[in-house]
Amino acid sequence: MRNDAREAALNIIFAEQFNTDCLDALKAKIYKQFKLDREEDLLFAKDLVAAVEENRAELIQGIEDACHHYKENRINPTDKSILLIALAEIRYFDEIPPVVSVSEATGLAKKYSTEKSADFVNGVLSGIINKKDGDTNETH
After folding, report:
1. Cα–Cα distance between 140 and 17 in angstroms, integer?
2. Vertex 45 angle, CA 56 and 19, to 5°
3. pTM for this model (two decimals)
4. CA nearest 60: which of 106, 109, 128, 8?
5. Which phi and psi angles does 73 have, rounded to 5°?
6. CB 97 within 8 A of CB 18
7. How buried is 124 (Cβ within 10 angstroms: 0-12 exposed, 13-18 middle, 19+ buried)?
8. Backbone angles phi, psi at 3, to 5 degrees
9. pLDDT value at 135 more than 60
10. pLDDT digits 0-9 by tens, 45-101
């Protein structure tokens, strides 16, 4: 299930905040722990992790901008990991509706973070989506 894949990705992205050399063995252990037996789920988790790893600076900038330049190092590490994953989904996984990414991120925050985290995560991501929807004149 994609929920398990997101949880596995969350654990890896969280660990990478404290150890930038997150070893492949640790990733494999986490994927196994979350029982990502279906190749589709495993690939989704790996793609999420790769998207965050490859675009970390851009994603962090997006989070900081949405938080009105509140520096990312002041955001709860669990919340930051959730935001990184959800923003990666919003920006790089066109087949996933942004509302689904926000809903899943809010669920992760309720499960893994503080009492107020779900509202924080929801607010940040909703602001990003609303800004994105309002930028119809933007060219890429």
Report:
1. 30
2. 50
3. 0.89
4. 128
5. -75, -5
6. no
7. buried
8. -60, -45
9. no
10. 999 999 999 999 999 999 998 987 677 778 999 999 999 999 999 999 999 999 999
